[in-house]
Amino acid sequence: MNSLQFPPEYWTAQLGGMERASLTTKLHLVFSLMIFLGVSIQQLLQFIFSSDIRSVKDRSSRFMGYTESATLENRFYPSNIFHLWHTRWPAARRYLHEMIIPCAHEIVLEESDQIIADRSLQVQIKDLTVSTLRQLLHPHVLIEKYQELAPFTFKILHTFSASPNKHRKEKASKRAQNSHETSDNEDYDLPDDPNMCFDESGAAGRAEGETGDGDWWKGMPGGFARNPIYAIVLTISILAFVRNRATNVLPLLLGLFFKISGTSNRVVVMLSNAGVCVSGRTIERLKETISKDAIDLAIQLMTSGKPFFVIFDNINLYLRKFQQRVTNQNTMIHATNSAVVALTDVDISAENLTDKLERRGRRFRAEPADMLPS
């Protein structure tokens, strides 16, 4: 059937003049007709959204359309209907939520696919350099990337972690009622960062010297001692790394940080199994790759003709003792660590070898005036 059984001409003959009635009158007429004919709302809605009749489908399509320029309540009509269901029938909320779960699964899976398919979140150790490592250390890049690829997951986790608990709600209510009073017995969980400052409400703010431009993620809700954004980024990173080992940008950085900070192998294994960081063997390969690139950079600097200075440091590591006696012997590793640092604001003439050789051996004749800074 390509058209309705009852064309407009039929209703003109039956209800002539009703087209000029008010909307309320028309709606009462339609629903009265439904009751008279014994048509349920379920049957009506099923017919409206499953019919292929052109006049019915056109109106269904307009109802399901999205108008960006319209007001918020008229932008997407199904959202208004869902809001009415959710607010006017509290007993049905449980079933409405169960209805949403499969759709949420589909959204999360799509966002997960986008994250694990993004090549910027996948780091090849053999191609990693000191320069690319520095680029990865900008946290806002990862935050914005996760927000772009997984907005639904990001918002869900933000609601989960950044919503105030019962204690914070009660304190906020009391603070609003007694805004002129201050308490000296605030039980805050102080952060580990000594540069983090707290305002009067207990909300952690930015450290001194930090600007607000582009640093929106550094702010925290009132009363929070830990930034929920950090927890969200780590959570998404863990989930993506568990699903796809190639999505390793944050686990790689965290693994390197844990290792150079002296974290034991057992702890690294535990964190790796939980998806927080990469394995210990991967970290060692990363350190080797970065070290090779650092050596190449040092050679380039030393052969470029630019001024630089070198720092040496001896490292002595105890491995084991042979005996528990006074005459025991130790096995140690004796290594020398060095760093080459460029002098960017120093003129190349400062390293004049001829003048240096001419002054050789004259220090014993130096006077206090010679040691004054010039």
Give a brief rundown of this model.
By secondary structure, this protein is mainly alpha-helical.
Written description of the protein model:
The chain has 374 residues and is mainly alpha-helical. The protein has three domains: 8-64, no CATH class; 118-162 and 192-208 and 215-304, no CATH class; 307-362, no CATH class. It contains 16 helices and two strands. A two-stranded antiparallel sheet has the order 1-2. Helix 13 packs across helix 15 (280-302).
List keywords for this structure.
51% helix, membrane
Q: SSE string, helix = H, strand = E?
A: HHHHHHHHHHHHHHHEEH
Give the strand line-up of the largest sheet. 1-2
What is the helix fraction of residues, given as a range?
A: 40-55%
Strand tally: 2
Whole-number mean pLDDT: 84
Described by strand count, sense and barrel closure, the largest sheet is:
2 strands, antiparallel
What is the CA–CA distance across the termini? 99 Å
- Low-confidence runs of at least 5 consecutive residues: 182-188, 197-213
Proportion of β residues?
5-15%
Shape: elongated
Question: So how many helices?
Answer: 16
Computed Rg: 35 Å
Number of domains: 3
* Alpha-beta content class: mainly alpha
